[in-house]
Amino acid sequence: MRRKYTAELQVDSRIDLFIEENERLITKIKSISNEKVILDIDPKANSINKDKEIHTQFNYKATYYAQQDVYLFQSYVVNVSSDRRYITIKKPVDFYKVKRRQHVRGTWFSPCQYLETNSIERFTMDGRGRLLKGKELAEFKKTGYLLNLSGGGLELKLKEPVNSEFLIIRFKYKGRYLTYYGIIRRQSVVKELGVPTYRIGIEFINLTDAEREKTIKMVFERMRQIQKKNVL
Questions:
Q1: Burial 45-84 (b: 16+ CB within 10 A, else e)
Q2: Spatial contact of 80 and 26, defined as CB atoms under 8 Å apart
Q3: CATH T-level assignment (fold) for domain 14-98
Q4: Any idea of the CA torsion for 41, 47, 49, 51, to the nearest 10 degrees?
Q5: How many C-beta atoms surround the C-beta of residue 14 within 10 A?
Q6: Which of the following CATH numbers is that of domain 104-231: 2.40.10.220, 3.90.180.10, 3.40.190.10, 3.30.70.3040?
């Protein structure tokens, strides 16, 4: 049984509300009372999910980012403002601590290649790190952009919708290709200058603990690189 914690909520702290599996609204705490918490939805940070339906009297999962730790909790939505800017939830009592480093999603934005499939079992990797479909080399014919990466999944920006259950994604890092298998958890359309682009949320599958740990280290390394560039 997971250990329960007591966490002190603080105004202006971030809370992510999972309105669907792997789809979340990024909010910050506007006010706290003895029984309720009012969350402020950031329109810029939620351009993709801003119109998703939020049900009152429904129990949602959420993530609370405290100063030193990250917690998971569940809470009922009491009210949603008419302009959808504010959400009132029942003040949570029970929190479950998660490891911050495994929860971090880092900005990436680099070119990638991908392959659609409904049968992931048909693919294997050879001793040279090449992807095989049966006994033949698999071809990555489609390209897109990797927007962000975490130990649990990634987000892609593509020119066309995806019509398969799984994706195999490949991108270069430090001069060599990295390959990930993922199941599609969400797909949405965003118009940029009038042109539709597709945001695809992927959850990793078949990732070993060692591979996940390596991915997390890559994310932190990338974040440090971006931070140095911003400082300079």
A1: ebebbeeeebeeeeebebbbebeeebbbbebebbebeeeb
A2: no
A3: Thrombin, subunit H (2.40.10)
A4: 80
A5: 16
A6: 2.40.10.220
Query: Which pLDDT tens digit goes with each residue over 159-196?
Result: 999 999 899 999 999 888 899 998 898 888 988 888 89
Boundaries of every domain in the chain:
14-98, 104-231
Which pLDDT band holds residue 24 (cuts at 50, 70, 90)? Answer: confident
Digit-coded pLDDT (tens) for 196-219: 999 999 988 877 778 888 888 888
Compute the distance between CA of residue 232 and CA of residue 222 in angstroms, rounded to an integer: 16
Mean pLDDT taken over the chain:
84
Q: What six digits make up the tokens of 4?
A: 């329960």
Q: How many CB atoms lie within 10 A of CB 146?
A: 23
Residue 128's Cβ-count burial label (10 Å; 0-12, 13-18, 19+) is exposed
